[in-house]
Amino acid sequence: VDAIQSICDLKSSANVLRQKKAGLRPEAKETLLDALSPASESTFLPRNRLAQAAEAVSANARVVLYMEESRRGQRSDAHISASEVRLLEEAYADLEDLDDLIGVASLRESQTVEEKILKAGSLGNFDDELTFLEQLLSIDPNDINANARYLRCLKLLGHWESMLVHSRWLIQNCASHAPEITPFASEAARRLSRWDVLEEVHNPSLTLRQNAVPWETKYEKHLGEMFLGFRRHEESLVIRAFNDAVKTLTPPMATASLVGYRQAADLLSKAHCALLVLDSAKGEHEPLLACTDDRIEAMSPSLRFREPVLACRIASLQLLGKRDKAGEIFIKLAKLARKSGNPGAAMAASNRALAMGAENAVVEIAKLQFIKGHKRDAINMLSKEIIRSEECLSENDRDAKNRLAILRLRLGRWSEITKSTAPSEILDNYRNATFLAPESEKPSYMLGRYFDVLLTETLEAPNEKPGSLLPAGARAQPMLPAEFSAREGTASSAFEYLPYILENWSNSLHLSVRYIHQVLPRMLTLWFSFYQLTNGEVSAASRQSRELQKKVRQGMTEVVEKLPKSVWLTTMPQLLSRLLHPSQQVVEVLMDLLASLIAAYPDQALWYVVPVTRSADSDRAARARSIVKSAVSLAKSKRVTEVLGAGGTLVKELIRVCTQGVPQRVRVIGSST
User: Fold this and answer.
1) Does the reported pTM lie above 0.85?
2) Collapsed DSSP state (helix, strand, coil) of residue 652
């Protein structure tokens, strides 16, 4: 306790506390942790002093524990000092507890630049963190801690050129801190394929204070030596540097594994990087050139863990002269950064891929432009890429056709979102996609979905035709088409789109059941609604309406015949719910479909159909019994009869049990009662 008291007194200043923490020897750290164990805690020692001691050895969970105990005996409105708030902020930031960090930050009336930096970095607002760090460095350019955080922020944003320039300037002007800055310069040089700079950074004259160098610096130094050996074709240097890197990673990995996978995952990605370079240097290029990397697939799907491995893959491919393959990896990196919510890193990777001639670089840049809100620029870029791809399209190149179909689908979707083009042009994009990729289910689904959008818009605004829809802020209405055509997206009534919806969605389901849950219930709903709205008006309806009903009936019949019976099993509750539909045409199709389903899958269908045969509604029960009778005659199997008969008996008994009266003063009822 006296030792802890002395340490706390010596570390009253926050700056001194951080300096002591950086230079604390391992044996002193273990001694202090033992002193901080619950068995050694004293009741009279102030908990805020214990929290300061715990912070000195990075025991952040204990910092929070002691601060909570310190505040527990005080009033709820008691003042909390700025130093205590700062202590809690640093602890929660290291623990990655963002909610508590925001709560603690709200205790401050005003925030300093350092506090704004801490909050922005913890919340992932790296652009704001970079701005605040630049303000701090304008006051003291030689602050090594601020410079290290500035370089780390540049790394997270993917600004490798700026990171390389700044780190080299620091190495030249702050030679005493070269070991802390060297890993940033080495990593930036490696990622930019600046091998001459990598040679310069790994100059032995820059290796200072070896005993004080942290393991991150040692690892980056050894990884840089592996790449240098790879470049010089010196396998012995690569193997020696690999062994040194493994020795460097072993102690921190053993410590992190005791805490959990999240702490060890970062170290595992570094080990993957070293192993990847070793395999490449030995001539094992198959994993490097493969479309998928088993190491990456086994890792957590986040930018933090996968990006270092992808960067090592890119550098190795560039050393082998495989610029096209390196460009493909840059595209993967850009997609990963975009999905992780880091558009800056995604744009940097996309530009590097474009410089290497990657095929999808322009498309990835267009996606980023669309996300940023530059929708018109994104559509223009995508349109130009489609024109360029069509000019060099080969008749037998299936991959190129599939890629062009994807571009057409994206252009149609973006035009649909922005309402920047007429429905006919959007439909043309979707139709071209179905023509280019006839074996894919997505184009047919997207085409049918847009027809459904047009149907819904026409129902909601019957006085406005889809052709008159304009983006928000438009000042004038375009001229309506001279002729109405459902195929071109300008139907005179909503349900004229229904035959095209049935046709395209049935084609999509015929190819794959990927969109079954989006398509089949909606298709049935539209079919039921159409006949319910038009029932009883056939005789008085116009010739055009009668032709539309004929098309819908024919289209639905083709859907029933085209799709496998197993697909319809998912919709049996919806089908049975409309047994009393007012349209006789719908009822006929329903009864035939349900009978065929029961005959094909009696074990699955009986749980839906047999209870309906005992329905309290006599009309519903009669139609259900008629369906069961048709199924038995259609199946021509004794087993179907036995299964349905047993199901009927079970339902009858269940109804009897539910309605059976319970005798008074009887606690136990047997199955024979």
Assistant:
1) no
2) helix
